[in-house]
Amino acid sequence: MRLSESKAFRESFGRMLTHATLIALSAVFLLPFFWMVSTSLKEEADIFKLPPEWIPDPIKWANYPDAIGTIAFGPCLRNTLYVCVIVVLGTALSSSLVAYSFSRIRWPGRDVAFIAVLSTMMLPYQTTLIPLFVLFKAVGWTGSFKPLWVPALFGNAFYIFLLRQFFMTVPADLTDAARIDGCSEFGIYSRIILPLAKPALATVILFTFIWTWSDFLNPLIYLQDDRQYTLAVALQQFQSHHEMAWAQLMAASTMIAAPIVALFFFTQRTFIQGVTLTGMKG
Questions:
Q1: Burial environment of residue 178 by CB neighbours within 10 A (0 to 12, 13 to 18, 19 or more)
Q2: Within this chain, do residues 268 and 193 fall inside the same structural domain, yes or no?
């Protein structure tokens, strides 16, 4: 009994220590976000007080309407959502189609092509930035949203790899039986593989949405009219024109970051499941 009680105590103490460590690390990572929200509700004179005030007194909610009016939040939000929706749908569809081909269809040179796709992940984006800009300028797409969403229609190497790994965990007997029954490859893809791949697809959608929502470099390079600006570019423009309006800047930053935080909070179970399951089979 004493040995079992000692083992149970050690396991319980280990779990408590693990949870305490995770809670402490979570507090450290949440501290900047909490400070941003706190600053967004302060008077300008209270922002640089020493010692700092973590709880604003008084709370100035007017910073949020001021920020919305200053950065044209509505049009920028519409532009951002427009790009995000097209990029998310295009990436999920194109990447899943390519991943299905690499995982379920046998064709000459498949493995070589897959290695070639993976090798593109080793190229830093900075090395292709200028050639892509020259290409899009030559076809007359600069100054429009096309350079932001057209590349998504050709898949993403990382998401292709992620989805391929998940598709390979689906038993081959399911797809073989469907082929025997006369189901086409697209039918197998849409009726069998995709319904079973919801966790992996949710992970791809979440990653893509977060990246596109917070993307600053591409809209800055390709968009030339301030009426086309996304939220990330509008926030930078606000900072450059209102250097001392820290409360409004933090209010705008909070509104831009809040959807990402909420999305991850409500989808974390699916996200973790998708990332975990995609590494089960090579």
A1: middle
A2: yes
Indicate if 128 and 39 belong to the same structural domain: no
Question: Mind listing the pLDDT tens digit for each residue in 203-222?
Answer: 899 889 999 998 999 999 99
Residue type, 277: L
Residues 247 and 42: beta-carbon distance below 8 Å:
yes
- Strand intervals (E) in the chain: none
pLDDT tens figures, 104-133: 888 898 889 999 998 988 888 888 889 999
If asked whether residues 22 and 114 sit together in one domain, one would say no
Determine phi and psi for 51, rounding to 5 degrees: -65, 155
pTM (predicted TM-score)? 0.82
Same-domain status, 234 and 99:
yes
CA–CA separation, 159 vs 99, rounded Å? Answer: 8
Q: Residue 75: which domain range?
A: 69-277
